[in-house]
Specification:
single chain, 159 residues, mainly beta, seven-stranded antiparallel sheet, 13 strands, globular
């Protein structure tokens, strides 16, 4: 967040007061993990207003078991907390042991894990080369392969 200083002149004395940045609220950003280049950003709330507990999802086809996975996250301040993981089948690379507080349930043909306790400053992904990763936010679906390129190493964070 940039700090802008305003000069205030009162009776010949100059005072510098910090002013609010023109950037209101927060954005979800996707960056290149190595260079920091910003691929895209999405405001979290209308017109930059602060909205608590905004959600987004990352969806992809699991490379080993070839079934869809959707990871849904909750944004709390500047932290990202996993809310649920929805998947179709167990297999290599899929979570099979539950941590304390986690619950495995069924929703039709899908399995859903909830009860995550850990929050993260950022998430790191490698965008699929065969199958795409998609970002779902604010009722929009964005292809990460089109946005970032195949095999891009990306970081998702809240700024």
């Amino acid at each position: 967040m940039k700090t802008v200083f305003a000069a205030l002149v009162i009776t010949g004395a100059v005072f510098f007061l910090p002013c609010c940045s023109s950037e209101k609220g927060r954005n979800l950003e996707i960056r290149d993990a190595l260079s920091g280049r910003v691929y895209g950003k999405w405001p979290l709330g209308e017109k930059g207003e602060f909205v608590e507990n905004m959600q987004f999802s990352i969806e992809f086809i699991h490379s080993v078991n070839q079934s869809p996975v959707r990871e849904t996250f909750d944004i709390e301040g500047r932290k990202i907390r996993p809310l649920l993981v929805r998947f179709s089948s167990f297999g290599a690379g899929m979570q099979s042991d539950l941590e304390e507080g986690q619950v495995l349930s069924r929703d039709g043909d899908a399995m859903v894990i909830t009860g995550f306790k850990t929050s993260f400053n950022e998430l790191n992904y490698i965008v699929g080369t065969v199958s795409d990763h998609t970002l779902i936010i604010d009722n929009k679906t964005i292809s990460l392969r089109e946005l970032c390129g195949r095999n891009a190493h990306i970081t998702i964070c809240v700024k």
